[in-house]
Amino acid sequence: MNNSKLEIKELDKNMSLGQVAGIYPGAINIFMDLEIDFCCGGNRPLGEALKEENHNVDEVLETIREKYRRDVKAGKTIEDFGRLSKGELMDHIIQTHHEYLRANLPRIQSLTDTIFRVHGENHYQMLHFVKESFNALKKELEAHLEKEETDLFPKMREYEQGRLDKAAMETTIQELEQEHDAAGDILKDLRRKTKGFTVPAGACNTFVFAFEKLEELEKDLFQHIHLENNMLFKL
Ligand SMILES: [Fe+2]
Ligand SMILES: [Fe+2]
């Protein structure tokens, strides 16, 4: 998708986190840096979410606006997912985020297994937790992708063509949103337990790479969940 536009839209503190990220996806990284629970709390107004975490609302809002303006001026593509039909959005989600998970979940599992095997003696508690939590996350996500691709997404395509009522999807959407919350909780625990994916001094390359991949997965998943919770699932 390539639809950069030079138009700058207004952002304000009464918009939900999901709406702000819908206009400027770069805001997601800022939310993550500020440890704002964006993934499961995307419906909260920006101002309220910042206040809860004791951030200066006006300052953060200005930072987001400034980065947004800078990106637009620099000619960076601001992906305007709001312009996509549901069908196009599902295609994008599958090709980008589902493909990413299918390729990377097994790789990261192999990395977390290896660092537990090699360094488990010195960092038993942390690495055992990382290995077990990641295995649980992988299992949950694999079932989740399957449910989206074989159950909800086909129904959503029918709905878009006017052949299905939205009531037929509501329960599945609720379940999928709960699964997003559960995956977000595992990632939050992983971040806390690893002190922000910080490796111990003198860690080997595999250790460094494993934590980099976990952080990359976290970023990808938050963007993925945002597109589903705040855009695709809004009927
Ligand atoms: Fe998905
Ligand atoms: Fe999902």
Automatic annotation (TrEMBL):
One of its GO terms (cellular component) is cytoplasm. One of its GO terms (molecular function) is metal ion binding. NCBIfam families: FeS_repair_RIC. The keyword Coiled coil applies. Keywords: Coiled coil, Cytoplasm, Iron, Metal-binding. The keyword Iron applies. This is Iron-sulfur cluster repair di-iron protein. Residues 131-193 form a coiled coil. It is found in: Cytoplasm. PANTHER family: IRON-SULFUR CLUSTER REPAIR PROTEIN YTFE (PTHR36438:SF1). Pfam families: Hemerythrin (PF01814), ScdA_N (PF04405). Residues 91-234 form the Hemerythrin-like domain. Gene3D superfamilies: nmb1532 protein domain like (1.20.120.520). It comes from the Bacteria.
